[in-house]
Amino acid sequence: MKRIYDKDILFDWGQKADLQSVFSSTAIDFFGCLYEKGEFLSQPCEEAEYLQIVVSGTISIYHIREDGTRYSLAQGQGPFLLGDMEFYQPSPSLFFVEALTDTMTLAIP
Question: From residue 20, how far is each of 3, 44, 67, 85, 106 by CA, in Å?
Fold first, then answer.
């Protein structure tokens, strides 16, 4: 994962996700994340540090059962919100979130 702090790039990403009104405020301290295909945005037992909005790319959210089989919960493209459940009730994630393509997110600590 590569972090992006350039405000012009972040503003463009916000426009792509139709989030101009949300991210036009300088009061929100956010940054961008670039994930390569195959990277995990979140994994089980990791504390979620950020609320992330997938701006572009495709992600898969899944769980691996005790017998090793994969249970798919969702697959989607941006805009997609990640970390909302952990934001309201801090706890480790139970699911894998994997980038199926190169993926860009806006992250709020």
Answer: 20, 32, 45, 23, 12
CB atoms within 10 A of CB 57: 21
The H-assigned helical ranges of 31-91 are 84-88
Peptide bond into 109 cis (omega under 30): no
For residues 99 and 35, give the distance between their C-alpha atoms in angstroms, rounded to a whole number.
7
Rounded Cα distance, 62 and 94, in Å: 9
Q: Name the burial class of residue 30, with classes exposed (0-12), middle (13-18) and buried (19+) by CB atoms within 10 angstroms of its CB.
A: buried
The H-or-E segment that residue 22 falls in is: helix 20-23
**Rounded-to-integer distance, Cα 17 and Cα 64, Å:** 30
Specify the pTM.
0.82
pLDDT digits (tens, 9 = 90+) for 76-97: 887 888 877 666 666 667 789 9
